[in-house]
Amino acid sequence: MKIKPSIRYQLHDQRLSFLVYYGVMVGMILLNLLFLPFAGGSDLRITSGGITAVTSIFFFIVGLCSFKDPFLLGLQHGISRRSQFLARLASMGIGCAFLALADEIYTLLVALLKIPFPNSFFAFSLYEMVYGGSTGTKLSLGLMDEATAATSHTALMTILLSIVFSFFVLLVFNSFGYLVTTLNYRLGKTGKIILWCGWPALLMASGVLFDANPRLESALAAFMVNLARLCFSTLPRMCLTCLLLTALFSALTWLLMRRANAK
Amino acid sequence: MAIKTQNLTKRFGLVQALQGVSITLEEKKIYGLLGRNGAGKSTLLNILTGRLFADEGAVTIDGENAIENDRAQGKVFLMSEKTLHPDSMRVRQAFRWAQTFYPGFDQGQALSLSGDFGLSTNARISGLSTGYHSIFKLVLALSVNTPYVLLDEPILGLDANHRELFYKRLLEKYAAAPFTVVLSTHLIEEVASLVEDVIIIKDGQVLRQESRDSLLSQGYTVSGGAAAVDAYIQGRRVLGIDALGGLRTAYIQGSPDKSAPSAQDLEFGPMDLQKLFIQLTNS
Amino acid sequence: MLKVDMNSEKPIFIQIAEGLEDAILSGALDEGGQLPSITELSVQYTINPATALKGINLLVDQGAAYKKRGVGMFVAQGARALLQKKRQGDFSARFVAPMAAEAKRLGLPRQELMDMVALEWDSAEKG
């Protein structure tokens, strides 16, 4: 088994994008600090809320770019698809853990800026925004049963739960991006066209369908709200949902990957 | 100890790329895998190294199933025509990663070979010319120290000096510690003197697999006036005939029969690999 | 010293053997001296080591060379005389027969051919 070298390569492959991403994020804060004196002092409010939402999109895109290069390099060096896939799971987990941690550190650093600039900086993790944390300002999403319970957590607990929350959210986004790019790799030209034109077409068609049947639309909306409540209403439920989705995406990825040829 | 394939079959759409290919690559031998463009050489090598899946058939390396097997594949290195390295990777990074994946890879050797060939280790792989692209892959193959090294069209785009240098470095390495080398090429003359065994494939099927010398000893050429040659070749297994004015050269399987009535007007010569190859693979 | 012609009709291992014989006959390789190693021959002429070995083995079979285990191949004592004798034996078949055949094809009279041979002999003797 050559899983370890594969993990090393896959992590190396992501490293640069991580650096660039946090470079940009920190750069934006620094830019804000630079312009703070000119912005009329205390009137300016800079809120860093839920960086993980942005990180999720970022990590989805990283997932989109994570298949071809490592896969072909692995084949060049005689690494089986099985080992590559297992290494992929490991490096995805490591990447998510790293980003979840980094997001929380980033949030805490921005929160620290509140000390010198009490009126200008506010920072909340995505977890705090969704479920409400010790520091308040929960979003009234209306379906979070545990929101009040979460408010009672200690600061340390909030930090820990934020990291756990981010980790699972990132897993879903990254594994989905990876699934999409693997599917894209396996598809021929016709398949690609069907895939990339099919989605918009399907959305348009369903829009027309809903316009014609308002009752269907409201039933579907109600179903979605119920489903979301079932899956996301508490942190453990959300984690389980994310884990199941990740497992589903990864299982599909493996089915696509196990017979993939070098191109 | 050998790489063995059994009845490999591969089809790309309507094209039958390989059909019932069974070959053996023994340890510590230099092979010529010869075939015209599109004969199936690359497909065969790609299947051996797990880059493509065969539709049917089996591959073993040293007795072990080779498909999706890291340990077995750790003994093989394939330099394919197309490089599988990311475009943005630099040459020296590729060396480092090769060492990560193949513990026997000798970075010192790779750097010194790069120096010999004038390959800049700072260059990006995608920025290399065709010739230096080949050189990059040859340097990898000559530094990787696996028991089986497969080279697909190794001299593509190399000038005469670099070709010569490559052959010398290859033979030095082989002499120091013999390993299996497969030179897959359609340029027969280039490798004819280098190889010990020959595998000839045509339209996805193996025509011949044997030692170069025994292959060549099975045939001969006979040349002379058209009438004499025509008389001589009656009833013999003729692989092909070249005609130049009234002169003919026939390529014949078997051993020369110098006592034949028409023989005194004819000249007999040994078969050469290039000519035999052309005659065998002409369609 | 030695040349290998890939396009020659002669098999490479025979060319290697003959080249080494020539070197022994001319004194370029001394009796008791070491022959080039298989590796040297193989790299120098870019030929398969098995081919080089086959060439050297031709010398060994004739008794013109021998192997010292772990050291290499050496020119046997008396190899020069041995090879001279062999080449003398081959001489007619290798040189005189084709010459006579060609002379005949060109319609050169027998005596003229003899005179030519005598003339060349004399100039070779003068150096």
Provide a descriptive summary of the structure in words.
The complex is a heterotrimer of chains A (263), B (283) and C (127). Chain A has helices at 3-35, 51-64, 68-76, 81-112, 126-131, 147-151, 155-186, 189-212, 214-232, 235-257; strands at residues 46-49, 121-124. By secondary structure, chain A is mainly alpha-helical. Chain A has one domain (3-186, 233-257). A two-stranded parallel ribbon of chain A has the order 1-2. Chain B has 283 residues and is of the alpha/beta class. Chain B starts with a strand and ends with a helix. The radius of gyration of chain B is 21 Å and the shape is globular. Chain B contains 10 helices and 15 strands. In chain B, strand 10 (197-202) and strand 11 form a beta hairpin. Chain C folds into 2 domains: 12-79, Arc Repressor Mutant, subunit A (Orthogonal Bundle), CATH 1.10.10; 80-126. Chain C has 127 residues and is mainly α. Classes of the chains: A mainly alpha (263), B alpha/beta (283), C mainly alpha (127). Chain A binds chain B through residues 1-2, 5, 8-9, 69, 72-73, 75-83, 259, 261-262, and chain B through 46, 49-53, 68-71, 73-74, 76-78, 83-86, 97-98, 100-102.
Weakly predicted, low-confidence segments of chain C: none
Strands across the major sheet of chain C, in which order?
1-2
Number of strands of chain A: 2
First-to-last CA distance of chain C: 21 Å
Question: Approximately how much beta-strand content do the residues of chain C carry?
Answer: 5-15%
Helix-strand sequence of chain A:
HEHHHEHHHHHH
CATH architecture of the largest domain in chain C: Orthogonal Bundle
Structural class of chain C: mainly alpha
In angstroms, what is the radius of gyration of chain A? 21 Å
Profile the largest sheet of chain C.
2 strands, antiparallel
What Rg of chain C, in angstroms, do the CA atoms define? 18 Å
On the 0-100 scale, what is the average pLDDT of chain C?
A: 90
Task: Summarize the SSE layout with pairings.
The complex is a heterotrimer of chains A (263), B (283) and C (127).
Chain A: H1 3-35, E1 46-49, H2 51-64, H3 68-76, H4 81-112, E2 121-124, H5 126-131, H6 147-151, H7 155-186, H8 189-212, H9 214-232, H10 235-257
Parallel strand pairs in A: 1-2
Chain B: E1 2-12, E2 15-21, E3 24-26, E4 30-34, H1 41-48, E5 56-61, E6 64-65, H2 70-73, E7 76-79, H3 91-101, H4 107-117, H5 130-143, E8 148-152, H6 160-176, E9 180-185, H7 188-191, E10 197-202, E11 205-211, H8 212-217, E12 219-225, H9 226-233, E13 238-244, E14 247-253, E15 267-270, H10 273-281
Parallel strand pairs in B: 4-9, 4-10, 7-8, 8-9
Antiparallel strand pairs in B: 1-2, 1-3, 1-5, 5-6, 10-11, 12-14, 12-15, 13-14
Chain C: H1 12-26, H2 38-44, H3 49-62, E1 65-68, E2 72-75, H4 79-106, H5 110-126
Antiparallel strand pairs in C: 1-2
